[in-house]
Structures are given as C-alpha cells and as structure tokens.
Amino acid sequence: MRNPIKFNPLAAGIMLACGASLAYAEPQLEEVTVTAQKREQSLQEVPVAVSAISEAQLMDNGITDLTEIQKMSPNTTLQVSRGTNSTLTAFIRGIGQQDPLWGYEPGVGIYIDDVYIARPQGAVMDVFDVERIEVLRGPQGTLYGKNTIGGAVKYVTKKMSGDTEVSIGSTLGSYNQRDLKLKASTGLTENLNIGAAIASFNRDGFGENVRTGEDQYNKDILAARVSLEYSPSEDLFFRFAADKTTDKSASKHGHRFNPGINGEAVLGSVYDTESNLPSDNLVETSGMSLTAEWKLSDSVTVKSVTASREGETETVIDFDSVNTASFDVPAVYDDEQFTQEFQLIWQGENADLVSGIYYYDGTAAGGYDAVLDPITVAVNGSVDTQSLSAYAHYNWQFADQWNLNLGGRYTKDDKEADVYNAVVAGLGSDLSHDKYYADSADPVVLAVRTDYTNSDSWGEFSPRVGLDYQVSDDAMIYASYSTGFKSGGFDMRGVETANPQTREGYAPETVDTVEFGWKLDLLDNRLRVNGALFRADYTDMQLTTQRLLDDGTTAGDVLNAGKSRIQGLELEASLALTDTLSANANLGWVDAEFVEFISGGMDISDTRDMQNTPDTTAMVRLNWSLPVAGGELVVVPSASYRSDTQIFETPSILDQDGYTLVDLTATYYSADGNWNLGLQGKNLTDTEYRIAGYDFGPVFQTGFYGAPRTIALTGNYNF
C-alpha cells in the first residue's frame, strides 16, 4: 500500500460499514520514522506526543504551506498573523506567541532540519522539497531549548540519492493561482551530490482595496534552496544548504466591523479594504547552514550544525481601513542570527545518550510609526541576544520492558536592548515621512517618552524525567515530567514616562508538564492508536496589557502577570480498512484557564480566557486508492473542526465561533511513477472564518480571514 491514511474510533461507523472487507483483507500500516529526539526512531518507540506528516501525505492532501498542518495535529494552531502574509502565529496546547513584534520570543520553536528559526517573519513556509513535517507537542526544553515550552515544528528535508533526478510541478487554480516548482539533483562524483529547488507561488487577491483596486490577500512569493552533500567515507557526511525566500504579496489590511472614523460604510466582503496606504510589502528571509556528521565508532557519533539566518521586512498596516491617516502603521523589521550546535550521540546495548552544546547570537531590530493625524507615535529599537546552553538526554533500559529517560538543559541568556518611543507632530517620522506622507510638514519631536539602553541575564535549568513500559511488541505506555521556559526580555513598545519599570524588562515564563501517553499497534498492525493525557502549570506568563494615556495614545505593558492551568487529551489513530481504503482521525481537547491575571494590582483572571486555544480540534480523513488505467487514483475526503476560539485574552467581537472545513483531493499517479495529476478542493462549503484581528475600540476593530473556497489543478513530472 502506497500511503496509508489514518483513523480512530471517531470513525467507527466507517469501520463497521467496511466490515465485510476487513474479513478478507490483510492490510498493514507502514512504520513511521521521526527524529523527535534528535536521532532516527520509530514513531511508536518515542515517548513523546508527536505527529509526523510524510511527503506522500502532504501531496495526497494538497498541503501547500505550514498553516495547513494544524488540521493534522491535535491542539495545534498555525495561522497567518494579523496584518501579514507570511508571519506565523503558532500555539500548541495553549502556549505560543500572539505578538510578532521584534524582541518578543515565541513559545513554539520552528526548525528547518536542525536549525532554529528565531523570528516568526517568513515562517509560514510553503511546502516544497520536503521529506516530512513533525509536530512535537509539550515542552521540549531538554533537547530543543528555550522558547519550545508549547512544542516544536520541524521541517525535515531529505538526503540526495546520488542519482540524476529532475522534477517539475505546476498548479493552476482559483483566483488565477499560478504555481511552478522545479527540483533537480545529481551526483557530481561518487561521493559528492548537488541539488537545487526553486518555486514560484502566485495568486490574485481574494479581495481588493476598493479605493485603489489593488489586490488584498494575494500571493507573490519566490523561494529557492540549494544543497551540497559530501560523503568522503561511510563514517563522514557533510551537507551545505542555503535558501532564500522573497515575498512581495500585497500588504494586508483588515476588514472593519463597524463604520469608519468618518462614517465610512462597512464593506460587503471580508477580504476587501478601503485604505489610503499603498500595497507595497516586502519580506525577505535567507539562511545558510553546514552540517557535519562523524561516526567515530559503531556506538558514537558526533555532529556539528553551523548556521546563519537573516530577514528583512517592509510593510504597512492600516488599522482604520479608511482613506485617512487616522491610524496608519508603516513598519520595518531587521533580524539576523548565528547558531552553533555540537552533538555527541552514543548508542549502547541497553542505553543511549544524546548530548550537546548550543550557542545562539542574534539581533532583532525594527521600527514603526503609529500615525494618528495630527501626531505620530514613533517607536524603534533593537535587542541583542547571546544564549549558551548545555544539555543531555539519557535513556536506560534497566529491565527487559522498562526504560528510564533522564534529561536536563541549562541555558544562560544575556540580552541588551535599545528602546525609543516619541510623540511627533505631523504624519510620520523619519521612518515613513518621505515615503508615505511627503506632502505633510517635516516631523517635529514633541515628547520623548522612552529612551534607554539596558541589559539583563537569566539562567534556567529545564529537566525531564520519563518512564516507559513496553507492554508487548505492539504496545507501549509512558509517563513523563518535563519543563521549559520562554526567555525574558524588554518591551519594545514600553512607555517609560507612564511606567518607569518598563526599562527593567520582564522575566522568563516557565511551564511544568506531566504527561501520560500510549502508542498502540493493534489488529495485526492494521490499527494504530496513539494518545496522551497532560496537565501543565504555566507560571510568570508574559502578558500584554493596554492603557489609555492622557494624550490620547495607548501604552502597552508586558508583565509577568499570569498563571494558568492547562490540561487535556490528544488522540491520533490510523486504520487500514482494506488494501485500498484507509482512514485517519485526530482529536484534541484542552481545558485551559487562567488562575491568576494581575492588572492594576487586581486579579482579573475570571474575566480572561486563553487566546488561540479552541477547546476542541478534530479531523477525520479517508484515503481511497483505486487502480485506474494501470496507475493509481488516490481520493482523500476530509473534514476538520475547530471549536470557538478567542483571539485575545479579553472577549471581543473578534472571537470566532466553531467551524468545520471540508476538503477533497483526487490525485492520479502513473504506473511508471513518472508523473501525477491532481485536483484539489479546499473549504468546499465556502465557510467564512476569522483567524486574527485588532481591537482598539469600536472604530478600530478589524479582522483577518482564512481562505475561501478554492479549486486547483496540480501536475508533476519526474524526468
């Protein structure tokens, strides 16, 4: 069977309906390999809640970018951030990063192979040249370090075979979608391989700026990757990889819920806007990495991963979404990072060890103008971070069926921040005055509200203890206690004249999680049921509160003001019904609540709820394989559900009711394996659903939405 799809007891009706076939078929599920613990293991042997989506599953399901992975992983939110096209909002089990402002840290780590991506800008990666995507749920602080307290998402590319391979793929679809992917690799010598991939993603907008006619929600992305692999011997492997992505999609402005500041009418389409700002928008991200592996012996391997990345963003957000400068925000971001990791991996007869040292040196900088005609709030600054950590994860099989997992990581963070905040007369500061508001008077500084340089350091130890029991060859249960932390920092929007404490910054937040899980292969390896029960105590939460100041502007304070309790259940199951029919379902349930939320010296936790955390997520998917004209037709219908979701901690008009998305894909694979042709229908019921928004009072409430119904025809040819 080419690609078994998965299922769980939620689809018992389908199982019963196919009962006659089950009596005669002897299908089996394929083994899934993951690197969740930084070494190759079977998914069923890893005592961690992890979802793995293979290249074949990505193709069969028509998955085009990272956000669609949220359907296939329970209790996971991966969305495009408010006012952006390729900035990622990632939450797992209620923990993540809502605000993508420079200097703030994520709660879910994003990785390309073993390289950590520190900033969310450009992290909504389009899927191409990938072997699989892994989603690790729960704190990964021991092996993956700080800022993975919710979990981690790993984008895994594949090694080259040395054969000459060339493939071309294209997509034509709704809203004039025009995608093109080219990939090639070859062996230059017996030990040296080279490969490259380039992809262009283009689509007209789902809506428009009704004032200018320019696109809204369009796509204009060019991405490329090149890699060089060298194996001088069986014990040595080197890989150099470089990538670059340029996103010129139009700036994205929100849909107003209410009449504008001058009484402008609410627009009919949620994808339309009415903005005075241009649609110019640019996000560029690039990186290089060098990976070296040396197998010292049958039991010892050392590994080095050296990487650098950088990103630049120029964008504009029209908070008022009308043809006036009543709340315009031009912004720029600039970040760079260098990382070095050394690993020592030892494999013994009844024990193994993964250990390492990790170094990070990065700068996140930016600036924006909040244009509030006739004044502007000008903000700019930067944060320099140096982080050094050492870790070890030891697994000991102390009895025939018992394993003990012990791990720990110590991290030392040093940060230095420059923060500037001023009120300026006129439209824009030096950042945007000439570019967007050249006809206004030169900006004049009326008041400097924040101007400081400060530094701080934090040291944190993140332990893990786990025990797993191999009940049989097909069943494993485990229990674990794990911790993690998100680094402290400085508020880039802080108003020192209103809150002098802002220059002191805020401390790290931590989470302690207890998890009980199971990995089961049943019915002669035809049914796979994996699950986890968990409880997390989340303390010193970094929460942003807003205050209205006497000058009519607002001040946002980032405070360690929150504690929460998060508990829940995750189920993932696969069922091979017959040799040609298989199914998958996943279910996530989470009960997340604040137990403390301090604002103004008062505990207001009973009026706040966790953001971007629906209490129920679920997906049911079938995979039906039919022999057609000597080849194979794979039909995949699916339905994914997300319950009511609160966009911010405070209830508002932005909050999204529960909704279901229905998709259907059909892909034909030729008998010789050289080509395939697919038809992909997404959101077939044309459900309207909100994924983000801004709430600055009735006049400035805007929402951002997921894609409407789309149909696409895809084709791939392998030479």
Describe the structure in your own words.
- The protein is an all-beta fold and 719 residues long.
- The strands form six sheets. The protein has a 22-stranded antiparallel beta barrel.
- A hairpin with a 4-residue loop joins strand 29 (554-576) and strand 30 (581-599).
- The radius of gyration is 26 Å and the shape is globular.
The oligomeric state is: single chain
| DSSP summary, beta strand count | 38
Distance from first to last alpha carbon: 24 Å
**What is the general shape?**
globular
The low-pLDDT segments are 1-25
H/I helix tally: 4
What is the makeup of the main sheet?
Answer: 22 strands, antiparallel, barrel
Q: What is the alpha-carbon Rg in Å?
A: 26 Å
Work out the helicity level: under 10%
What structural class do the secondary elements suggest? mainly beta
Percentage of β-strand residues: over 45%
Question: What's the average pLDDT?
Answer: 92
Task: Give short descriptive properties of this protein.
719 residues, 5-stranded mixed β-sheet, mainly beta, globular
List the helices and strands and how they pair.
Blueprint: H1 12-17, H2 19-22, E1 33-34, E2 41-42, E3 49-54, H3 55-60, E4 76-80, E5 88-92, E6 95-96, E7 108-112, E8 115-117, E9 132-137, E10 151-156, E11 165-173, E12 177-187, E13 192-203, E14 207-208, E15 215-216, E16 219-233, E17 236-247, E18 255-256, E19 282-295, E20 300-318, E21 328-347, E22 351-372, E23 375-399, E24 402-425, H4 433-436, E25 444-472, E26 475-486, E27 509-522, E28 527-548, E29 554-576, E30 581-599, E31 602-603, E32 616-628, E33 631-642, E34 659-669, E35 675-682, E36 690-695, E37 701-705, E38 710-718
Parallel strand pairs: 7-10
Antiparallel strand pairs: 1-2, 3-9, 4-5, 5-6, 7-8, 9-10, 11-12, 11-38, 12-13, 13-16, 14-15, 16-17, 17-19, 18-37, 19-20, 20-21, 21-22, 22-23, 23-24, 24-25, 25-26, 26-27, 27-28, 28-29, 29-30, 30-31, 30-32, 32-33, 33-34, 34-35, 35-38, 36-37
